[in-house]
Amino acid sequence: MKDMTPPQLDQSRVRQSFRRGLQSYHRTASVQADIAARLADLLQAQGAPGQFETALEFGCGTGHLTRQLVQRFEIGSLLLNDLVPEAASALQEFGGAAPVQARFKAGPVESLPLPHGLDLIASASTVQWIPDLPALTARLAARLKPGGWLALSGFGRGQFRELSALGSAAAAPSYLDAAEWRPVLPQCLDLLAVRQAPVVLEFDSALALLRHLRQTGVNGHAQQSWSRRHLRDFEDAYRARFGCDGKLPLTYDPVLLVARRTA
Ligand SMILES: C[S@@+](CC[C@H](N)C(=O)[O-])C[C@H]1O[C@@H](n2cnc3c(N)ncnc32)[C@H](O)[C@@H]1O
């Protein structure tokens, strides 16, 4: 396994970046919307029951996964969480993803007081922001009932590979490939399925690509201001190295998994 030392993360910057992008996130984050649907598909395909008494979704954002979960499963009591407190109103605003039986608690999931005996813990496109994943998964597993389900998606090491190759600091701290997940999970979790398949978006210009990153909030670690000169140099370097038929590709590298607590 590659170096797993948790890197330093400025969580207030991540919060600020997602808070600022919250309004535009829902319509811009088409890749994340697809991932949420695929994660719910995977959970069903692994034989999850149609009903869960108690469930937690962390990093719910504007509710892409929330909507998938409540449409496909009957959930008695649903706790929703996000680092950004304003996600609570965004959940309502974007088509009322949160059902009446849902409660929302803001804060980092790593330290949020969590109920015990959960039947399902789910999260899409969020774990890449958690520096210490072994600690988080151990904490989550301890909150699951025996037989309880864990459905997660993050991103692999190919995430935004073009940006890292060009020296950008936009990377989140925990990109893990499919094969790296088993050692990160505690022994009491049975890894039922893990999937990794890249998705490439194309942009006409560096400005459009940067705007996409800003609107989705996924560049929580990146530099915030660009001079005209810097932007031009960046676009030239990007085109020279990755440009294809006049377009600039941007690789997303989603990794999805479903696990179950054994004992
Ligand atoms: C890319 S969005 C994904 C949102 C939603 N799950 C989806 O699939 O569209 C990542 C979300 O994780 C939240 N987040 C980041 N770090 C977090 C943490 N430590 N605890 C809880 N939420 C966190 C961000 O505020 C953001 O809303």
From TrEMBL:
Record-linked InterPro entries: BioC, Malonyl-ACP_OMT, Methyltransf_25, SAM-dependent_MTases_sf
Gene3D superfamilies referenced in this protein's UniProt entry, alphabetically: Vaccinia Virus protein VP39 (3.40.50.150)
Enzyme class: transferase
EC number per UniProt: 2.1.1.197
Keyword S-adenosyl-L-methionine: yes
Residue ranges occupied by any Methyltransferase domain in the UniProt entry: 56-148
Recorded GO MF terms: malonyl-CoA methyltransferase activity
CDD domains cross-referenced by the UniProt entry: AdoMet_MTases (cd02440)
Pathway as given in its UniProt record: Cofactor biosynthesis; biotin biosynthesis
Keywords: Biotin biosynthesis, Methyltransferase, S-adenosyl-L-methionine, Transferase
GO biological process: methylation
Enzymatic reactions: malonyl-[ACP] + S-adenosyl-L-methionine = malonyl-[ACP] methyl ester + S-adenosyl-L-homocysteine
Family: Belongs to the methyltransferase superfamily.
Function per UniProt: Converts the free carboxyl group of a malonyl-thioester to its methyl ester by transfer of a methyl group from S-adenosyl-L-methionine (SAM). It allows to synthesize pimeloyl-ACP via the fatty acid synthetic pathway.
Annotated protein name in UniProt: Malonyl-[acyl-carrier protein] O-methyltransferase
